[in-house]
Amino acid sequence: MKYEKAQNILPQNIIEIIQNYIDGGYIYIPRKNENKKSWGENTETKSYLKNRDKEIFNKYSSGVSVKALAEQYFLTEGSIRRIVRNIKNLSP
């Protein structure tokens, strides 16, 4: 997100209306609903975490302890348990 000067993109009458609500401050204009993107859509993060979680589940299923997985992936034991539980719930 980048800042734009209002006077460069908005008509003066709109600026004056906005100034009645906030004078000289910053205001965030949200995206239109049809232009919104879900979390991780612009990066590979979502895909990376999905693959990491599958890897954790597979190692857990092979007998690796929750404690060892937490240390290996730098996560809490509670996070490892949550990942395992979520993947178990997705399986039929």
TrEMBL record:
The cross-references to Gene3D superfamilies, in alphabetical order and at most eight, read:
Homeodomain-like
Instruction: Indicate the segments annotated as coiled coil, or none if absent.
Output: none
InterPro entries per record:
c-mor_Regulatory_Protein, Homeodomain-like_sf, Mor_transcription_activator, YraL-like
One Pfam family cited in the UniProt record for this chain: Mor
> How is this protein named in the record?
Uncharacterized protein
